[in-house]
Amino acid sequence: MNTVDLLFYFFATLSVGGGLLMVISRHPVSAAMFMIISLVSVAALFVLLESFFLAILQVLVYAGAVMVLFLFIIMLLDVGPEGGKVSRVKMLSGLASCLSVGILVILLLQFSGIGDASLSNWKAIQSTESVTGDSLVFSTSLKNFGYGLFTKYMLPLQVAGFLLLAAMVGVIVLSKKSTPDLDA
Amino acid sequence: MFDFEMLFMIGLKVLFALLMIGAVMTMAGYSVLAERKVSAWMQGRVGPNRTVLPLVGYVPFAGKFLKGMGMFQPLADGLKFLFKEEIIPGHVNKFYYNLAPIVALVPALTTMTVLPFGEFFADNGESFPLMLANLEVGILFILAVSSLGVYGIVLAGWSSNSKYPFLGGIRSSAQMISYELAMGLSLLPIFLWVSEPGTGAMGLSLVDIVDSQKQSPWLLLVQPLSALIFLIALFAETNRLPFDMPESETDLVGGFHTEYGGFKFGIFFVAEYAHIVVGSAIFTIVFLGGWHFMPWMSDPWPATWIGSLIGVGWFLAKTIFLIFFFIWIRWTLPRFRYDQVMNLGWTKLLPLALINLIFYVCLVTWLDQPPA
Amino acid sequence: MAKTVVLQRKPLSLSERTYLPQIVTGLKTTFSNMFKGKVTLQYPEEKPNIPKNYRGIPTLVKDPNGREKCVSCQLCEFVCPPKAIRITPGAVPESEDDREHVEKAPQEFEINMLRCIYCGYCQEVCPEEAIYLQDEYSLSGYSRDEMINKKEKLYELGGTLPDQHYKWDKKKNAEDEGNDH
Ligand code: SF4
Ligand code: SF4
Asked: Could you tell me which residue, A116 or C146, shows the higher pLDDT?
């Protein structure tokens, strides 16, 4: 076992443990902090894969912006340790956990090669070809990311962007209640 | 498992890192002094001028200067913070209360790892940038890590469990998120411009940006609007006046650090100034040509170790001027109101940054057209 | 009736709305201020000019003959708003035989400088012009007791007032001329 392996196990434990503690911890702020730890250690895992760009985006977007908003909301609403103890929510969260455990099990089965869908059968990972025909070298350089995103994955990118736009418009419509007497 | 050479390399890196931290912390300490001195001069006062070590007054020539300028004030301030009684109010959330100053300081010190501050000329004429880690995505790294700095403030505000710090924390997080966007957008045109075919630069590396300004105009002259937006966002991100919402003394007592005292307050204080130092260095690198002499001119110093020393000195001079500029602005402008800050960020700066980006996208595309 | 004219504010021009030219002007002002003269007084070495009618710490004064002027009437004690003065009335010391048994003198006179508000009422009320607020303003001590000025201290601080009343000389002259008071 060399240094990189050691680091991998360290950060992997940290990310999984952080995730677990996030679910378990009573206090929302603690939960948010554990989630940040988990996210940052995932970023560290990306660094170990020498994918600096992804690592930095992980920190920038999730730890730096999304989680700040989470904390912001938690603090503004001043959710105490008893927040979220509503029975209706419980059913929903049960459903969600069932779903995610299911996905986890399926993925584990896939990667461990049980069943005929083992990792080597995944065409997508083996070769990535751009629309222009020449195959994209699977590398972590910034240029490759950009090139891949705007050639082969153009449609998914646009669709994702459109989805985000729709979400944004939805939020604005929901949160901006029009008061008729003010409008008049 | 570990060979000796690797250990040596690690040791060297650690040494360099410690040196760099020492340098930045010293600069932070002395920018506190500079702040007090400059504010004093601008208000017709003389500022701190009494702290002196024994015997220093007798040093010929420099002695009087050292005495009158209060050169040892940062030392006295630091010692004062160290020896003050540490009071932890009873109503705070102890764990996060103690954690917050550390969370505030670490990002400020981490960003400096990717800051190039000069170049080293090898014997065979090649030059290497002087920095701890040459990351391909250096600027993104800085943005990412400095965005983590807001946690220190938010946690401090929340864990203090009292009104004023809480308001400070809330304001700070809102402000940082708003201005991060404009900051990022203002940097995009820079990279578009630098990555123009023919200049050789491709990534988001800070070294490439500095090298693109060698013997060519500084990016400040090429993209004044980006520079302006970046500067304003920098002021907001470092919580400096006119954007010091998180700690506006007049309406929030001390803001997020109201409940802090002694050494923990000192850490917040130093972290803030470290942010300013690093921010000034980034602005120097991106817009003021880093260690290169003047726009359109080649470096007048020789490509030897003397040259690299002068280069580092020149870089420091620019950085120090920017720190002075930060201070200068602070003692000139009044504070914005909170809603004005938000308004400026979202409805003025962000659209402006977008327009700027689109303009340069068009310009670069037009310039890039292959000759027909 | 005066006619009210509503002044129409001029709309800000584009350059004014960016604030930038104004900021530059402000920066120029502060920058030029850096090189103007300093107004700082290096305090313990340099002292400010104290005007004549300054109200510093209250002290007791003697007349040019070196006599105590205070007759222990306790008016100042009564008038003092924060009750800073405490007087123990006593007799004139035996050495001053010309006025012994004629007037009183303070046996003890204390002014608590932690209470005194430098209002100057004591000076104003004193019928004998015996208590004066002087130009001394910086006083400090290591304990509360030290901050209570005793009689000796008060006379030491007060010194002699070169007034020309010579009350006791006049009194004596009058007595000599057979005109008792
Ligand atoms: S100055 Fe005023 S407060 Fe002070 S002793 Fe005289 S009467 Fe009292
Ligand atoms: S100082 Fe003046 S007012 Fe006070 S007791 Fe003496 S004579 Fe009376």
From this structure: C146
**Which ligand does the CA of C122 lie closest to?**
1
Cis bond upstream, residue B302 (ω within 30) = no
CA dihedral defined by B24, B151, B74, B241, rounded to 10 degrees?
A: 100
Domain boundary among A117, A141, A175: A117
Is the Cβ pair B173, A72 closer than 8 Å?
yes
Query: Is the same domain home to A103 and A148?
Result: no
Alpha-helical segments (H) within B224-261: 224-237, 249-252
Output the CA torsion B290→B37→B74→B176 (10° steps): -60
In chain C, count of helices (H) and strands (E)?
A: 6, 5
pLDDT tens-digit map of B254-274? 777 888 877 888 888 888 888
Q: Is residue A12 part of a domain?
A: yes
Are A105 and A135 contained in the same domain?
A: no
pLDDT value for A87: 56
CATH number for the domain formed by residue range(s) C58-156: 3.30.70.3270
C39–B44: do the CB atoms touch at under 8 Å?
Answer: yes
How far is the C-alpha of B54 from the C-alpha of A177, rounded, in Å? Answer: 69
Q: Which two tokens stand for residue B47?
A: 């500022």
Give phi and psi for C86, each to the nearest 5: -135, 125
Asked if residue A62 belongs to a domain, the reply is yes
Domain housing A111: 1-117
Instruction: Say how many domains are in chain A.
Output: 2
Q: Which amino acid belongs to residue B18?
A: L
Distance CA B78, CA C118 (A): 39
DSSP 3-state of B29: helix
Nearest to B16 by CA among B24, B28, B6: B24
Fill in the DSSP letter of residue C62.
Answer: B
Q: Is the CB of residue C117 less than 8 Å from the CB of residue C81? A: yes
Please check whether residues A39 and A90 belong to one and the same domain. yes
Chains C+B touching (3+ CB pairs under 8 Å): yes
Kindly state whether residue A124 falls inside one of the protein's structural domains. no
The answer to whether residue A132 scores a pLDDT higher than 50 is no
Residue A122 lies in a domain: no
For A141-184, what is each residue's pLDDT tens digit? 667 777 778 888 888 889 999 999 999 999 888 887 766 665 54
Tokens of B292: 């290169």
Mutation site, A4, A27, A36, A142, interface B, largest B CB count within 10 A: A142
- Asked whether residue A13 falls in the same domain as residue A98, the answer is yes
Q: How far is CA B271 from the centre of its chain?
A: 10
Q: Is the ipTM of this complex over 0.95?
A: no
Residue A24: CA atoms inside 13 Å, Cβ hemisphere, count? 6
All residues of chain C having their beta carbon less than 8 Å from the beta carbon of residue B349 are none
Give the count of beta carbons closer than 10 Å to the beta carbon of residue B44: 13
Q: Which residues contact B223 (CB under 8 A, 6 or more apart)?
A: B189, B190, B193, B287, B356, B360
Task: Tell me the CA–centroid distance for residue B358 and ligand 1, in Å.
Answer: 74
Q: A1 and A82: one domain?
A: yes
Long-range contacts of B274-277 (CB under 8 A, 24+ apart): B274/B24, B274/B25, B274/B28, B274/B105, B274/B108, B274/B109, B275/B108, B275/B146, B275/B149, B275/B237, B275/B238, B275/B239, B276/B28, B276/B31, B276/B238, B276/B240, B276/B323, B276/B326, B277/B24, B277/B27, B277/B28, B277/B31, B277/B319, B277/B323
